[in-house]
Amino acid sequence: MDSANVVPEGRDRVRRVVCPGSFDPVTNGHLDIINRAALLHDEVLVVVGANQSKHGLFTVEERVEMLREVTSGLKNVEVGTFRGLLVEFCRVNGVSAIVKGLRAVSDFEYEMEMAQMNYRLAEVETLFIAANPVYSFLRSSLVKEICRYGGDVTSLVPELVYERLQERLGSG
Ligand code: PNS
Predict the structure, then answer these.
(1) Which of 23, 35, 59, 167 lies deepest, with the highest CB count within 10 Å?
(2) Is residue 103 annotated as part of the catalytic site, yes or no?
(3) Is the pTM of this model over 0.85?
């Protein structure tokens, strides 16, 4: 094998990946990406960014707990948190690639910037999974808004998340 193909020490080929996000809360769109990443890779670390934890509807711990419950059937998925730079989390945990879902062109510019910056900072790759079109409009902030004003989000989030949203935002 050509020496240019040798993987640097402490890194692997895309065996272990990270799926980062705010997950406030996890939606069916997130779950679709996590499921598909788990089919492609040996280990998937789903991590909640804890840098701005005060602004969320759910605490970081609550988000982690929901993620753990809804991914409990996926044996190669682990859920945790990270603080600071994502590339630093990747370095410490021997992760060579970030997996992100791309919903629409509107995601592209922001995601591309982050992907290029993360590569520039630490040569961490970003792999994009094209979102299932049935979830292309779906984001946590919209789910919260719809729920806040009494709309039906049952088909957009796992049942457990729906219950937590009702407890926190529902009128009843
Ligand atoms: O679900 P989100 O809000 O799109 O997730 C964004 C997240 C947490 C993945 C992103 O903000 C992030 O990676 N934050 C960690 C800080 C960092 O590394 N910033 C530099 C990005 S180039």
Answers:
(1) 23
(2) yes
(3) yes
